Amino acid sequence: DDDTFSNVFCENSEKLINAHLFALAAKYYSLSNLGVCTPLEDVLEALRGDNQGTAGIKTDEFMNTKKSHEVQVMSELVDNIANYCGIKQVIDIGSGKGYLSSFLSMQYNLKVYGIDSSNTNTNGAHERNRKLKKHWKAYQSRGRANLKSQRLERASDRPMEDEINCKEINERPLNNDSSLQSHDQVTIQALVPSCDFTEIATSETSKQSKVDLVARTQSDESKLSEEFLAILNVLPADAVEVSCSSQCNYGELCEEEKMQRKMASLKAKASESNESNMYFPLTSCITAETELGDIITDLEDCMMVGLHTCGDLAANTLRIFTAKPEIKAVCSVGCCYHLLSEQFENQQECPEEVWGFPMCQYLKDKGWCCGRNARMSACLALERVAVGQMLPTESLFYRAVLQVIVEEIYGVTKSDRHVGKTFSKSSSFIDYVRKALKKLELDDSKLPDSCIMDYYEKYKHRMNELEAFNMLKVVLAPCIEVLILLDRLCYLKEQDNIAWSGLVKLFDPVKSPRCYAVIALKKQSC
């Protein structure tokens, strides 16, 4: 009913008069309630078919809890999309220090190009790989133990599985050839009604059968050796330290030569499958007009990913995806909505400019604008507040009073400079104001301590008001986020070359508040 939430605001003054109804309305229009998201489990099931996921290294051994959760979940999804599309190359936009990129390469044997605008991040990615190599023996030992445990479990389960499979085959009608043929096909049609992926799926199934046949005939030792070769491919050449004793007796030397020859032979046999297992950190600023072929010389059929791509980078990732035929799929999780550029924010007509919002024609036609305050609110984390991780009220209060001082004492209403994390480095409100004024390049000598404290005392009693106001912003945050995300999804729905697109909740929002991914697959011919 359109009138359900009509009494949230006063009709004349437009002031909020019913906070409870306001909260209910915000919940009603959030992504979790609108029913527009596709469950992650459904996407994975459709992509995998009857294939099982790969068990591997736990990311929490070399990442913090938040990053580990994000990388573990997103890398599994990316691998399934890549397998479904039959591609081995991944381009990670805004890759930072390479957490996702390196794991995709190591765990899933994908050839990954991590592109970041910061050379510092690129160098950090190289350094991180170097450190990862130093501790890899421990990870490898644990992986070997896990592999052995999994084999034992499979061996114990196999008699029961064989009995069940045999029973299924005997009970299946012999004249139903079509159902037998389609039994192993990926059921993506439930998600992708407009496109036939049968040819791709059949081709990939055939390839996978060959790979599985080869894998079954290899010994455990060969598997471990190939895994080790894969790790060497991940790391920069200068990160691999080869050390051996300068004095070896004849027997030791022979064993070493045997091992070297064995490794060389394995590498030659595995070169086709392992040549894709590489990670290349690159530095480049990505825009909507970026030609990936100028950055990646061996660009081939690939997919684009982005884990918390900042501001306009998320929008530009989708634009590049739709424009480039080589890019078959995209999986993008955006963040930093406050840094989005808006076409209608300043009411300036720049038709040639590429904006972060809006993207879809529907909102463009309506001249829709959020504004910076709304976009700032979209960055807040309702789920974290709901479990007791409250907003930093005192620091927000300091910032609010500082703004009053700057406007009234210095006459400044806008500035390109930022206060940053001054609060955490300050011992008192006076100390905070003086440090902040220096950052804003304003002369604090004409402002005595007593004057600063007068402002503090004047507004101290209104701190509860500020907290209540910010809580209302937190409640509204999901509604603003849904507008930005649906704009991106609608943009993809407007494209003719997209087979399927959707919003998928990837992460636990308490661990990672920006938890929604925009995912799309192109039509087979595109």
Automatic annotation (TrEMBL):
Coiled-coil spans in chain = none
A molecular function GO annotation: methyltransferase activity
- GO biological process terms on file: methylation
- Where the record annotates domain Methyltransferase, the positions are 66-343
Q: Name one Pfam family in it.
A: Methyltransf_32
Which terms are listed as keywords in the entry? Methyltransferase, Transferase
Superkingdom as given in the UniProt entry:
Eukaryota
The record ties this protein, via InterPro entries, to: Methyltranfer_dom, METTL25, SAM-dependent_MTases_sf
Q: What is this protein called?
A: Methyltransferase-like 25
Q: Which organism is it from?
A: Colius striatus (Speckled mousebird)
